Amino acid sequence: MAGFGKGRLLGAAAVGLGALGAGELIAAARGGSVLDGVGRLLTDTVPVPVVEAAVERAGEHDKETTRLGVAAGAVLASAGLAQLPDRLRGPAIAAFGAGAAATALRGTNRSAMSALGGIAAAGILRAGLRRQPTGVGGGLLWAGAGAGMLAAAESLVRRDDRLHRERARRVGSMGSGVPTPEDGFGTEPGLSPLITQAGKFYVADVNSRAPRIDPEQWRLAIRGLVAHPLRLSLRDLAEQAVEFDAVMVCVHNRVGSGRAGNARWFGVPLTSLLDHTLPESGATRLVTRAVDGYTISLPLEPLRSGEWPGYLVIGMNGEPLPPEHGFPARVFVPGIYGQYSGAKWLAELELTDDSHVDYWWRRGWPSAPLWVRPQARIDVASTGATGSGKCTIAGVSWAPPHGVSAVEIRIDETDWLPVELGAELAPAAWRRWRTVVDLPPGEHTVQARVTSRSGEVQDGAVRPPFPLGPGGYHSVTVTV
Ligand SMILES: Nc1nc2c(c(=O)[nH]1)N[C@H]1C(S)=C(S)[C@@H](COP(=O)(O)O)O[C@H]1N2
Ligand SMILES: [Mo]
């Protein structure tokens, strides 16, 4: 360690930042990213408790957080590599570069340039550490150049994403054009709208960015244990699609959080698609496979019979699916948590036997699909401006696929009181609720619970999302 002062460490970190920036810029020339590839590798390999903790902490910003963490890790690693004795440093950096190149190929919109970016970063790191900057000026130069190149790379990738988003929208309307639905509640400040706009709808997936799929080239293959494989274009699918309203819920949606959205979807019922393929007798599972190989599989029988009404979805709220929500197509079975109900960015549907293993099973999640537990969320609990004890309490509730039959609230853990329900859009959709209560001065807790039409009452036992889905009541505090 002799001779490695703070200055040299910082210098090595600066060289690392410069090398990383150059690598990212090269990868970005073809829309890829070395950081994204490493991020995906981390997502795929870190133990589930770490994933759960990260999901909890990072919230909506999981993708940015991962990217930043990986960048910081790469810079730290460069400083670490600089500490190695000369004879080890070369081979270590070469191994680092090879690893970066290989992982870059796991990134979402990877190309050969992504791998080249990883190799170039290692080459620059090697050269830079040989003649390592010792002065402040040299270090600043490396760091500044690195930061500038990272910013340039990011803006290149964002431009590609923007162009893709416009191309996806140009596919045209995806819906019946019927006016937006109403439940009689109108708009209430703070209360979630009946339909969640695409831009407000939660995004959850293992990818760092949405894959950019060309709708003209894209075909959905339905293959495997079938007598009659199919290849369908987006246009073929649009001709058979119907509209349906349903809430989609992430298994990570703890009570009160926002990983749930209600949309008017446009899709082809899986029953009819599956019938056309003439499944063979050995076919027991439907594997939904994304363009990156990610799979979610479902038992075939209930989908074929329509007992579980699944759809091949191509539209959301009258528009094509936005890239982050799976453009051009995804599978969705209302009532099943997102993690179990079908892949976004579909490449194919494969009918297969029970030997198939899904992404999340390998990571310790149960293999049987998890059904969404009924949940009520409190969006509004406000006393208004009058200073009186009149308090408006309102929110959304869901119990797909059966539907919501009642929502109740209780104040300070006393008796459950029924509330008014908005009109039901569809049993699988979410349903809004509201009430006005008179509260004495002081601090109060308000809790809500929902009962499904199948008779299931929301369970108050608090449970984490892993491994069976979250439980508990949403609880908020109001002060009068
Ligand atoms: N290809 C792909 N599909 C996926 C996922 C994924 O990581 N990759 N995540 C699933 C999970 S966990 C959820 S909750 C939903 C989220 O869909 P959304 O991002 O449109 O809300 O997509 C599902 N489909
Ligand atoms: Mo999810």
TrEMBL record:
This is Molybdopterin-dependent oxidoreductase. Pfam families: Oxidored_molyb. Residues 210-360 form the Oxidoreductase molybdopterin-binding domain. Coiled coil: none annotated. Transmembrane segments: none annotated. InterPro entries: Ig_E-set, OxRdtase_Mopterin-bd_dom, OxRdtase_Mopterin-bd_sf.
